[in-house]
């Protein structure tokens, strides 16, 4: 497969435990011929964590893409008007970023990049990485899934958080069915059982 002449906006947010695997995928896209435009949120661009040093991540991404990283709102805003991207991928997409996207809060470079990109009716791919996808983030993920331009990918596995969250429904702990657990979680989080089961079936694929 060739991605020659495809301009991919690749945005990273602060789910740092996934950075190693995510940056590997960025490199794979470049090897397939894509022009990758790197974008980073404020936290992903500045914070040092146990998963790596911010400057090391920055230098690695710049080396892979051969481009400067978009890391301010001012730099991200022209993406749509200048038609800089053909498709945009947010990977990892944290629960915080999902909340902002779902509720129209445009106060980070990544959210501005996504909003600007969507002006051109082009696809936005979201690789969710959160440990509360069926709790605090469930309603926001559900909202995102209602936009046909937006594609929700399987949650990036965080060991053990994301997988364990999905297991609440998938494995039906304590002998309860996924539907029964969905009913309980829906009641706790103020969303419909139907919405939660649709979300579960989408994410488990």
* Secondary-structure element order, N to C: EHEHHHEHHEHEHHH
> What is the makeup of the main sheet?
5 strands, parallel
The total strand number stands at 5
- Determine the number of helices (DSSP H or I, runs of at least 4 residues): 10
Q: What is the C-alpha radius of gyration, as a whole number of Å?
A: 17 Å
The neighbouring-strand order within the major sheet is: 2-1-3-4-5
Shape: globular
Overall average pLDDT = 79
Query: How much helix is in the residues?
Result: 40-55%
What do these coordinates show?
Strand 4, helix 7 and strand 5 form a beta-alpha-beta unit. A five-stranded parallel β-sheet has the order 2-1-3-4-5, with helices on both faces. With 205 residues, it is of the alpha/beta class. About 10% of the residues have low confidence. The protein starts with 6 loop residues before the first strand and ends with a helix. Helices cover 45% and strands 14% of the residues. It is built from ten helices and five strands. Helix 1 runs parallel beside helix 3 and helix 7 packs across helix 10.
State the main characteristics.
alpha/beta
Outline the fold blueprint.
Layout: E1 7-12, H1 19-31, E2 35-40, H2 42-46, H3 54-65, H4 73-76, E3 87-93, H5 95-102, H6 109-118, E4 124-128, H7 138-144, E5 150-153, H8 161-170, H9 178-189, H10 193-204
Parallel strand pairs: 1-2, 1-3, 3-4, 4-5
């Amino acid at each position: 497969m060739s991605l020659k002449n495809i301009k991919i906006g690749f945005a990273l947010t602060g789910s740092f435990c996934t950075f190693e695997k995510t940056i590997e995928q960025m490199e794979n896209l470049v090897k397939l011929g894509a022009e990758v435009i790197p974008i980073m949120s404020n936290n992903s661009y500045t914070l040092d964590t146990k998963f790596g040093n911010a400057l090391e991540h920055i230098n690695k991404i710049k080396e892979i893409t051969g481009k400067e990283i978009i890391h301010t709102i001012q730099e991200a805003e022209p993406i749509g008007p200048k038609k800089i991207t053909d498709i945009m991928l947010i990977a990892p997409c944290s629960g915080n970023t999902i909340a902002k996207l779902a509720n129209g809060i445009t106060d980070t470079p990544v959210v501005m990049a996504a909003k600007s990109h969507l002006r051109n009716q082009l696809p936005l791919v979201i690789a969710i990485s959160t440990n509360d996808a069926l709790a605090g983030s469930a309603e926001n993920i559900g909202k995102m899934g209602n936009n046909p331009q937006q594609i929700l990918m399987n949650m990036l596995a965080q060991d053990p958080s994301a997988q364990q969250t999905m297991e609440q429904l998938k494995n039906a702990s304590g002998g309860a069915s996924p539907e029964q657990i969905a009913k309980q979680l829906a009641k706790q989080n103020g969303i419909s059982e139907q919405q939660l089961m649709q979300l579960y079936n989408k994410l488990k694929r």
